[in-house]
Design a protein that fits this description.
By secondary structure, the protein is mainly beta. The chain has one domain: NE0471 N-terminal domain-like, CATH 3.30.2020. The protein has two helices and seven strands. It has a four-stranded antiparallel sheet. Strands 4-5-6 form a three-stranded antiparallel sheet.
């Protein structure tokens, strides 16, 4: 099982800084998802900013979420 999200900070250009429970800090690019289904709503910068940690993963106010394994595996280490 991959580490789980303990904190998330929205950044410019639709990227997320994610702190995992193993103390790794990574950056996840949400851009590839922004033209798909419910993720289109996140093109609104105000909506994108509503991201928060949720049950070891992340969730936006509109209910969009991503698998914690996807977040970990597809993010880039920045620490």
């Amino acid at each position: 099982m991959n580490p789980r999200v303990k904190a998330v900070v929205p950044e410019l250009a639709y990227k997320l800084r994610i702190m995992f429970d193993n103390n790794e800090v990574k950056q996840f690019d949400v851009n590839p998802y922004l033209d798909k289904g419910v993720f289109r709503q996140l093109q609104d910068p105000a909506q994108f900013q509503t991201v928060r940690p949720f049950l070891g993963s992340i969730e936006w106010q509109g209910g969009q979420d991503l698998c914690p394994d996807t977040l970990y595996r597809q993010s880039v280490s920045i620490n």
